[in-house]
Amino acid sequence: MKRFIAATLLAATSLVATMAHADSLADIKKAGTIRVAIDLGAPPYGQLDEAGKPAGSDVEAANELAKDLGVKLEIVPVSGPNRVPFLLTNKADVVMASFSITDERKKVIDYSDPYGVVPTVVGAPKSQALPDFASLAGKTIAVTRGTTSDQALTKGAKEVGGVNIVRYEDDATTNTAVATGQQDLIAAAASVVAQVNRANPSRDLEIKFVMSSAPYAIGIRKNEAELKAWLDQWIKSKIASGELNTIYKKHFGIELPAEYRGK
């Protein structure tokens, strides 16, 4: 048992030492490649275009990052659940996959400064004027039960009163209800509005207002001070130049909040 414990501790120590060394800024430059984990199944952050090539806001940002770092970009496809494991097991150098900052994740990884936000919005046909929560009074709006969109809508609607919220059990059902005209208004992630329009262009939806925003950042392993410092400075410069806002607006149809536009 003592030998087993000793071996386990040695293995853990070796893993930590390897992780701390393997992906320093100098190592990435020496390799000439940065491996960026991106979820290619989460449009508009990451997806495959009609030619089967990676596209999306995170893909464009990652390309800019690699170019400015002076290395090649290698995209490591990930899904939501395996973003952290891929980072911790050295399958990727960094994560750029609509990676929201949470206290739980911060226990095991570090983040760069935020470079974007995941917005929850209210969408409706262009013909309807809905500038804020107050304009939802007397209206019916669809949302997926238990999501961050549901939470933001419930909070805002409570302050207004008279809002009829129809909760569906999953995103597919919610989106279908709006795409088929069963519902006109929807509370969802900003990317959903574009998805509904693609499913039925005649719905002609647009984003009316943002309910809430959760910042996302580049995920890195802990104790990588040099890499974090470089990434933070890169984000600062790209915010100041407006390049990150240009990418964001292209894919989401709205601008980043003022604090992410150097305003």
TrEMBL record:
Q: Which Gene3D superfamilies does this entry report, sorted A to Z?
A: Periplasmic binding protein-like II
Against SMART domains, the record matches this protein to: PBPb
Q: Which residues form the signal peptide?
A: 1-22
Q: Where is the Solute-binding protein family 3/N-terminal domain?
A: 33-255
User: Main location per UniProt?
Assistant: periplasm
| Localization, UniProt | Periplasm
Instruction: Indicate whether Signal appears among the record's keywords.
Output: yes
A Gene Ontology cellular component where this protein is annotated is: periplasmic space
Q: Which UniProt keywords apply?
A: Signal
Q: What is this protein called?
A: Amino acid ABC transporter substrate-binding protein (PAAT family)
| Species annotation | Neorhizobium alkalisoli
